Amino acid sequence: MSGSGADDLAARQAALVAALVTGGPVPPGFRSAPWEAARAALLRKRAGEVARHWPLLAAGLGALWVPSFTDWAARRPTQGGLRDGWDFARHLRDRAQLPTLGADELAAREATGRYDGHTTPRPRRFPALGRAAGAVAVGFAGRVRLLRAAPRPPAP
Length: 156
Prior knowledge:
This protein is an alpha+beta fold. It is built from 6 helices and 5 strands, in the order ααααααβββββ.
């Protein structure tokens, strides 16, 4: 096989994968129903991978976890379970939809790591703070403590 043929095959394979993971059009030669089934399966698998990195976020959303995450992820290429979860948690926080368990987990991540949304997360030096939806995580000496304000009693 010539170099250009291998390059052409590699380019077509890359386009095929990109279409599967970012919701591109069904390529010529593929039937729509099996294509969509494969795409849905890949998104569910991705949700499972993210849930392994972000178990409290997934638990906080409960039955809404898979549909919420897959809807968000359908047009985004994967960045890996840790980064996808971090981006999704921030997305929910920005829309005031982050459940308490997810807020706790995000605050702890923000206290222990630096992540700008583009590059690989890096460990944060201690002491450090992380905040999310009413939770504050304090990192010191390699440990993280979560602080949450006590709920206010209803006004008379």
